[in-house]
Amino acid sequence: MNNLNSVIAEGVLVEKPAFQDTNGKPFCTFSIASNQFYRVKSKIEKEVSIFDVEVYGKLAESCHRLGQEGRGVRVVGRLQQKKWADAKGKEQSKIIIIAEHVEFRPDFKVAK
Prior knowledge:
The chain has about 110 residues and is mostly beta strands. Helices cover about 10% and strands about 60% of the residues. It has one helix at about 60-65; strands at about 5-15, 20, 25-40, 45-55, 70-85, 90-105. It has a five-stranded mixed β-barrel. Strand 5 (about 70-85) and strand 6 (about 90-105) form a beta hairpin.
């Protein structure tokens, strides 16, 4: 039985999604910045977290086409741990989101 591994993250795109098509398998990566506000005494503090996202297939093509730096986005997916050894042989790891659903906030253009 698989354990529950599900995440929803909202934020804004840090930059335009990067797209690759390897042997007919579309793949897209992007990062989102997600803000959290909290109160410390009488001040409002802001904490920014950056989450790396990977997207595959037709959804990757859509993300590349629709994604622009600063555009709002909601990602639904699962967490995955990536592990590797750096140049000095030290083990490294990070947690990424593997997207299963991506929604972009409306992109309203101001008429000039």
